[in-house]
Predict the 3D structure of the following.
Amino acid sequence: MTGGKAGDERWLGQSIMARRGVAAGRVGRTHALTDDKQGEYHYTVGPYSKPVMEIEPGDRVVVETRDAFDGKIVNESDIPSQVLHVPFLNPQNGPIMVKGAEKGDVLAVYIESMRPRGDDPHGICCLIPEFGGLTGTIYTATLNEPLPEKVRLIRLDDQHVYWSERNVFDYRPHIGTLGVSPEIDSVNSLTPDQHGGNMDLPDMGPGSITYLPVRSPGGRLFIGDAHASQGDGEVCGTAVEHASVTTIRVDLIKRWPIDWPRLENADMIMSIGSARPLEDAARIAYRELIRWMVADYGYDQFDAYMMLSMCGKARLGNFVDPKYTIGAAALKNIIERG
Amino acid sequence: MTGGKAGDERWLGQSIMARRGVAAGRVGRTHALTDDKQGEYHYTVGPYSKPVMEIEPGDRVVVETRDAFDGKIVNESDIPSQVLHVPFLNPQNGPIMVKGAEKGDVLAVYIESMRPRGDDPHGICCLIPEFGGLTGTIYTATLNEPLPEKVRLIRLDDQHVYWSERNVFDYRPHIGTLGVSPEIDSVNSLTPDQHGGNMDLPDMGPGSITYLPVRSPGGRLFIGDAHASQGDGEVCGTAVEHASVTTIRVDLIKRWPIDWPRLENADMIMSIGSARPLEDAARIAYRELIRWMVADYGYDQFDAYMMLSMCGKARLGNFVDPKYTIGAAALKNIIERG
Amino acid sequence: MTGGKAGDERWLGQSIMARRGVAAGRVGRTHALTDDKQGEYHYTVGPYSKPVMEIEPGDRVVVETRDAFDGKIVNESDIPSQVLHVPFLNPQNGPIMVKGAEKGDVLAVYIESMRPRGDDPHGICCLIPEFGGLTGTIYTATLNEPLPEKVRLIRLDDQHVYWSERNVFDYRPHIGTLGVSPEIDSVNSLTPDQHGGNMDLPDMGPGSITYLPVRSPGGRLFIGDAHASQGDGEVCGTAVEHASVTTIRVDLIKRWPIDWPRLENADMIMSIGSARPLEDAARIAYRELIRWMVADYGYDQFDAYMMLSMCGKARLGNFVDPKYTIGAAALKNIIERG
Amino acid sequence: MTGGKAGDERWLGQSIMARRGVAAGRVGRTHALTDDKQGEYHYTVGPYSKPVMEIEPGDRVVVETRDAFDGKIVNESDIPSQVLHVPFLNPQNGPIMVKGAEKGDVLAVYIESMRPRGDDPHGICCLIPEFGGLTGTIYTATLNEPLPEKVRLIRLDDQHVYWSERNVFDYRPHIGTLGVSPEIDSVNSLTPDQHGGNMDLPDMGPGSITYLPVRSPGGRLFIGDAHASQGDGEVCGTAVEHASVTTIRVDLIKRWPIDWPRLENADMIMSIGSARPLEDAARIAYRELIRWMVADYGYDQFDAYMMLSMCGKARLGNFVDPKYTIGAAALKNIIERG
């Protein structure tokens, strides 16, 4: 994958989105969801916010996302606990309404490309008190002193992330938070769950399609939290958080009764579970993958269960959020055989 | 404790509610929150629903609660999975607005009495597929066949719960779900968290005061889910669910910065944590109790930590909901000494 | 309960131990397991250590237990991390061999009395780095600085625990660690599991009978870790640890196929689960209790499940050890009806 | 990697084993640990079993491992619960004593090659009641009916695993269980922990070096549980279990104070944590990796923490055993820079 753009798109024509989507692979109009047009960003994903636009299945949207700190951290001397205020973290663009979407349908979100936004692009990685994988938190409540607050300002462009003099990485972006509205709940944008949300899966970058179960009219798509690079688990609690221009195509699949988000790319299909403890996220992900193999690939339930025990792939999304995320995947060149 | 009514109320005059509340122990007007007045019940606790009434601190409200199944289960032959529809479970009365309540304040909810509602009162206990403590669930996802669905219709009155020919129990009611609105989230009424919600603590009955951290203007109090009797853990997922007439007094404590719900009765103070895994609920509850002992009872943090290791009490609220609840308590006759 | 002695023993004649034990309630010889006779204490519970004595079912043993720190902490200025060395913690008396005990049987251990040992009895409560409920540990691994080390030396006698000028408590002792050998494993004395071990249940004091599933010839009973007082959860990681003289009677129940430890006292029967996360300990405890009610009290499995949801009691043993412990109990006056 | 043999070995000369081992990269004598020589296999890893051989650092051992079922499952019609008897599962070769190994040292185990054993090689994958990731278990205790028992007999050779008519996989073997003795505990061979044991990490195959912290004289190396192929998580509880001929080289690194197992291959270094809940395994693995980067690669603790948040890799070992395993890794071409 070249930095931030999807590579070979030939598989797209054979994707579930293309085969089952209302748009049948056709690309529609392009909409600009600029920072101005967004106006007020959202910190909760639900049915109560005012839609920012309505699109047709197949349409493309060019989204200007803000960084997870809403741009409030600008210097390495900023103190996160002073400039950040829970729950006003991880601003989301949207909700984008998709014409015809109803409960029981699925939104397909293909990420076409991502690039850093602005003239002098940079990312932020920081340590926030009581947040992260290796610290006591508000849930894993301890009496230990919090870790020191740290801010790293990281220069980046659409090819590289200049982490330090010692280490330069490829720009390998993905979207940390992508979701549709629950039916009646409104969930803060830090929490992943059945609706998607803050899953922090490195696989959710350019060249991937995410499938999200619609629970309210129009689907109400929210998107944000671009990462220029992220390790499995996002262990310190933040990745390289940056403002991005992210281009997506959105299609609608009617009547696909899935319970949790799913993902597809050129090589694999993946089910995504979010829960605590972490083993429950793994259980959800693998059970959904088995159900998928049974429904769409002709496997017997227990054959699929046993076969995944010898060839399944698991990705640790994060184990730092209010809920943790694991994706369970099967390679297409395995499950599509026969 | 006589069935469903608070006993000796002399301690009330020395309660935190009386000492720090705006009403200073005075009882105000009595409001009737009948089923009719409630009209539409709520399945999510948040800032987006229309208030059902506004009261003054110190006022009394007589609330007609529905059972957790919204009255949809009426016979033992009813099949829960056919008549119940997630997320439309556990209907809540409210939101009740309390004049003057602002973020940073606390609502104090004293439960004065509870009695079964209706001419022919009864309760329901049932097994719902993939719900409960000893079954695979949507989170602890397994491939096992679900448990059989079962419904028990239980006759009861304000003295007894007639469980079976073999076993008759005292009517020992409590409120399963009590909460205030989060700041921007709206949380389904099955989930407990920092805002309170579905904590299922048997201690939350007549004679108890629950303290809830206000996060939005007016506090927005929600209440429902009366249990005629409940064991620690509510192991099968439901207790003796019944429609009730629950009388509460609500006061307002200004500027009491607490992070999680707290409870007080004649004998003890209790902090309440809700999280998964269950040990995190215990961690939260005990840490908050220590903080309370430091702030209000003059203990050193580590002295409190060590002393609770020899005299703390823990109550298992539930380990069946989307989040689990534990209350950690200290006896007043211990911590108030000295 | 008077300090450290079992009260009314009339129920004993109706206990499971009396009704099903080989000794049928008769008290046999009394053996002295003094510190001298014990010689080498054990830090692991298994089949590989040399028996310290063999007794007949029904015999009484007067055990001189050491404190959990093996007496190495003698002043409040001692630094736990310097004088304690993992895994040489929590010294155990035993193994005591019981004649005729075989895999598939159960040892019944009735605690007749406990009293502090020595002329100038005292207990120790301390904070050990990376150990306890409200701190990062070697498993819940964090980067936070450890908590400060603290030692409290607490004067006590067979009536009281003189915790501080402000707080004096009743002497309410129990045995923290009680177990039989696994079949082939040898488990450090800090870890509870199916064999019993470090369960830290306050109910396991004078007047209680613990039932332990025999897995190796003779049963190989280990005992130690007396607490003068302990709160639910033993939140700081240690209780009031003291050397004791603990008098037990041990009987043998042939062919009682139980998977986890059980406990009985005058008022209740309790099943004990030890696992992580904590909800698994609760699941084990309640499932075993249901199985017990089905096998010995004539309940239908799902009736028992639902009834415990309205009347079950749960005790938090500890949530600080390598595995956590929960006891689930039913009152005798409920389950014995009918 | 060609089927079961390590590929390019040039990196070996620069490995930690070569640079810090007593043998300094020299290969010593070759020992045959045949099934006959092993005689009695072991089901518990500890200090109490009789050594099977003693070797010098640098020596090679050709080990004939049995499959995890000890060869007791031979037909697809065999019923696991009838032929398998806990705790007599997962037989281990060893203990192999390494001359000079003492507490505080590390054994380095390089897997040189693996191949199926026997004339008509095959593997077994099966469903065992109450065992596996998507079923109630003895810990995650439920009342659901167990899953059906299933046995798959899978033909294989040193190139392929003939799973089904539809799916043939590469033979990509690894060792599921590799460990040294704890100091005083003896741990059943199903449980991973600080001593190694049943980690079920697919990375632990030919071309990898595992580093194990010595806790008893001679180290006492145990090895077994060869998998012909395994997916992340080993979701059904068993992989393609097969008898193997596994060739290892063992070296000794003096005075390397590590707390948990570590792994190295051509591309990465990995720390391995085993615990429940699964997030604790992730916490351990990442904390140990940070400590490693600080001690041996010159990173500041918090720099390493933040950098791994953008480039760390996590491998799910298993989430089905009594403890779960996660490996956290950093690529050598990243951390060796600068």
Q: What stands out?
A: Residues 10-257 of chain A form a domain with the Jelly Rolls fold (CATH 2.60.120.580). The helical segments of chain A are 16-20, 35-38, 80-83, 278-297, 301-311, 332-335.
